[in-house]
Structure formats: C-alpha cells, structure tokens
Amino acid sequence: xxxxxxxxxxxxxxxxxxxxxxxxxxxxxxxxxxxxxxxxxxxxxxxxxxxxxxxxxxxxxxxxxxxxxxxxxxxxxxxxxxxxxxxxxxxxxxxxxxxxxxxxxxxxxxxxxxxxxxxxxxxxxxxxxxxxxxxxxxxxxxxxxxxxxxxxxxxxxxxxxxxxxxxxxxxxxxxxxxxxxxxxxxxxxxxxxxxxxxxxxxxxxxxxxxxxxxxxxxxxxxxxxxxxxxxxxxxxxxxxxxxxxxxxxxxxxxxxxxxxxxxxxxxxxxxxxxxxxxxxxxxxxxxxxxxxxxxxxxxxxxxxxxxxxxxxxxxxxxxxxxxxxxxxxxxxxxxxxxxxxxxxxxxxxxxxxxxxxxxxxxxxxxxxxxxxxxxxxxxxxxxxxxxxxxxxxxxx
Length: 396
What we know:
This protein is of the alpha+beta class.
C-alpha cells in the first residue's frame, strides 16, 4: 500500500501511527521547499532516516555540537567521505574514531532528531513507498515508532512551555557575568555554550536564532535554560520602526487569522478522518459559519492566505474600532467552543483530547513568529482557555 498527500491534511504523527500499527515496511519521503527527509520503516519500526537541505540534521554537525568529535577530525572524515562515497558513519568507524557500537548509538540520535524535527512541519508533500528499503549498506538502527510519537508530542508541549518564558522579539539580550544562580554550580551543555557565544548585547532572539548553527528548536530550548539559570537577561530594546502602530495592527490581524484558521482546520481534518469527508453532519455544521467575517476562518474564503487576509481585514475594518477586537475574539472563541463540543459529542473524550494536542501543535509556529503580539493581546491564553473549558464539559 503506497500513498501520497500533504501534511496540511494529514498530520505527521498520524502517518507514523498508521505505519506503526500496520507494521509497514517501506520509505516515507517528505519534501518542503529545498528540504527533503526520508524515514525508513521495517515491520512498523524506524530503521533509518536521511535529510537533505537541513543542516541541523547532519550527523557531523550533531557530533560536533555534542562534543563527540573535534572539528579537525570531522573535516578529515568529511574529506574522506566525499572522496570514497562511503557514508560518514562508516568513515568514522574506518578511521578508528568510533567503534561500530558507538556510531550506531550516534546514528540512533541522528534518526531521532530527523524525526522529531518533522513534528513541527505544518506542510510538505509526502509519499510512502511500500516494500522499499535503503539500497546502500548503511548501519541500520531499530527504534520503536510509538516511543518516538510520544516523545515528539512531548516536545511540542515543551515548546509551548518554552515560548512563555522567551523574551520579546525586539528585546536585546546580554550575558550576565556574575549570575545570581539558584545553585553554586552551573553546568552547560555544548549547545548552550554555542548560544552564549552569539549573545553580545546587540542581538535579539530572532537574530541569535538566525546565526545559530544548531537549529531553531535547540536554540530556543537552550536560550530558555540560560534564562532560567539567570545567565541571560534583557539589555535593551531595538529602535522602533516608524510604522510600528500600523505594523502591530497588521501583525495582530495576521496572527488572529492564522491561529483560528489552524484551529478550525484541525477540527475539520479530525472530523473528516473519523466520519468521512462527505458526512452531512460536518457539512451542516460548517455551513452555519458561511456569513460575514467568520467565513474567512472556516475554509470558506479564498484558498490563498494572502487574498484571504486582505478580504478578512477589509471586512473586519467595518466593525467599529473600539469594539473590533473584542467582538472578533468573542465570536471566534464561541465558534471554537461550539465546534469542540460537536467533536466531543460525536467522537468522545479521547478524540477530543487528541484534537487538543493537534491544535496546540498547529498554533505553536504562528505563536512563535508573532510572540510579542500574542502576549500583548493574550491570544494564546484565549485559545487555551477554550480548549480547557471544552475538555471540562466532557470530563465531568
């Protein structure tokens, strides 16, 4: 059974669950822009993964970041890898830098990171080719897919917690030379050391993430730990742009549309997967939101986000300015609550709980992109409260 699709309509954890429970053997290829990742399965377990176009996934960089190899040895290994065509892992074994058992452990770590990074992908074309296996003689591993699903979901939850403690995008950061630490000794990982070298009092968090060699999630997580250890503090604010007020209003409406569209799309996908895309109950429920500004959030506007955004903004601006935000958020939260209640009544508490996790994953990226706006207008808190309230109804 080979199949294709896009992560916009089928979430990555759902694909893993399908391949695991079906004990499938084959290769799952996922492409987004210039980045392509392949995850290889045997009897439902993951045995290998490759990544092209995502430096944070490369084995050499991973070993270097974790202090398992020095740069001079890595450069020699990469040179031999290019000249011989052998996989880097095998080259490192041939050079005597790692035993086969050690490199197998490192490859397990690399495969895990490739898979975990896919949990943050909201879109990307995928194809599963059943029966295919790696053609080269690679060092293979065996990882329990169910365990990776659980850890990947945990990381998404961790990311949501990390976001709440990170500084605003326009704040400059500096290192504290004499930190008021909670203990006498502070132990830093190699990744946290790399982040410290990028902090100079003149860079904001987005600047540091852009300059970091260890990938976005690892950088945000490392910064979170440095802040909790009182090693990094805010040193100032970047000069404000001339059109700050206009920009903020545009960012606000952009974020509102992205967040609630993600919520409603997640609900629609869950219902269609469980009840079928042509189910009349789904059609009737969404038909109730065809009028006015609500249509732009529930898949009834343009499929192009830019066009949808412009139309939504024009429609929203017809609402008196002093009541605009309150009216929109109140209405959206009411609709979200109604749709969650519909899912709970039709499919039960377990599905509702699963849907809540999917929604949190879907909104994590737009929240990260506009963190300061979300914090100022409490958008994340609004959505989380609706999710919490809907779950309470079916738990009591």
